[in-house]
Specification:
By secondary structure, the protein is α+β, with helices and mostly antiparallel strands. The protein has 6 helices and 7 strands, in the order E-E-H-E-E-E-H-H-H-E-E-H-H. The structure holds FE2/S2 (inorganic) cluster.
Length: about 180
């Protein structure tokens, strides 16, 4: 497997082609916050909490580290002011289920209080049910700000015997609703 050289927060390292920035950073002890990422599921890139700044060929931009694969000569910065600013914005959007991170990034309140449920739309339960459980009992319906989780009523009884997605739930919605649906 081809090895690529890169730099993360000033540290030089080598990692296999196909490694994501998130994985490479973790391998040298650099922690990048995530929400929709799970090592057991395919990369998804939905929440953008894991954004980092990359520079390649004198061009700097923000990318989601959980889906972006490393490149030779890449320079990555995981904690710049620009990165912190976007994480603060995302944490504010996801308030109140991220109170721990909110403290870390000094976010005291949110302009975007969620509707009646506490679903962060991270998609972990949907992906678990589809990729691992192969059931598709939970899905997203609607688009944009109307996007929300739903459970297929005919499959809800299966949920009562599974509950595996509960451990992944970042907002509490599925924990409450999967037992209410049948
Ligand atoms: S953890 Fe990377 S986009 Fe959600």
């Amino acid at each position: 497997m081809k090895m690529l050289k890169l730099q993360i927060d000033g540290q030089e390292l080598q990692a296999q082609k196909g490694t994501t920035i998130l994985q490479a950073a973790k391998s040298i002890g650099i922690d990048i916050p995530t929400l929709c990422h799970s090592e057991n599921l395919k990369p998804y890139g939905a929440c953008r909490l894991c954004m980092v700044e990359i520079t390649k060929d004198e061009r700097t931009r923000l990318v989601a580290s959980c889906v972006y694969e490393i490149e030779d000569g890449l320079v990555v910065k995981t904690n710049t002011e620009r990165v912190k600013k976007i994480r603060r914005m995302i944490i504010e959007l996801l308030w109140p289920s991220l109170t721990g991170l909110a403290k870390e990034y000094d976010v005291a309140s949110s302009r975007f209080w969620p509707k009646e449920t506490e679903c962060n739309l991270c998609g972990l339960c949907v992906r678990y049910c589809s990729e691992i459980r192969k059931l598709d009992a939970v899905y997203f319906k609607g688009r944009g700000i109307d996007r929300e989780l739903a459970i297929v009523p005919e499959l809800a009884r299966e949920c009562a015997f599974c509950h595996q997605c509960h451990e992944l739930c970042t907002g509490g919605w599925i924990v409450y609703h999967s037992d209410q649906a049948f």
